[in-house]
Amino acid sequence: MRVYLFDLDxxxxxxxRQRLSAAPSPLAVECLSERLSLTNxxxxxxxxxxxxxxxxxxxxxxxxxxxxxxxxxxxxxGYDHIDRAACAARGITxxxxxxxxxxxVAEHTFALILALSRKVHHAYRRVQQGDxxxxxxxxxxLAGKTLGVIGAGNIGLHVIRIARGFGMQVLAYD
Length: 174
Hints:
alpha/beta, five-stranded parallel beta sheet, elongated
C-alpha cells in the first residue's frame, strides 16, 4: 500500500521512519513537510492512503485527483475538513485521532486563564521595561468563579476537570 503523510515536521518524519524500520511492513510510506492541495495532488495519484492535518481540505475535487485512494487519516480530532459523504461514496475509509491533544489543549487553556487572572503579561512587560512595581498587578482567584465551556467533548471535559480542581463552578454547553 502506497501512503503519503503530509504536513510533518522533521522530528515527526524521523519518528515515523524509526517506527517503520522497527518491523517489516507492506506499507510504502513517504513523509512530507508539504501540504496536500489541488495544485500538487496529481503528483500523488498513486496514493492508496494519505495522512493529513486540518489545513488540507479533502473534497470531491481533491478526491478526483487521487483515483487509487482507499484511506484518509487526519492527524486531528476533528474531521470537518473532510467530505465524508464523498469518501463513503468511493469506499474510502476516514480515520481521525479522537483523543489527539486533549490534555495539551486543555492545559494550555488553563495556562491562558491563569495568565489573565494573575496578569502575567502585564508583569512581564513591566519587567522588560525595568519597572518592578507591583501597582495594578493584583490578580484574582479562580476558586468560586464560573467558567463557561462551549463543547463538552474530550477537550472540554478535560477543561472542566481542571476547573473543578481550581474550585470553579462550570457551565457547559454541547
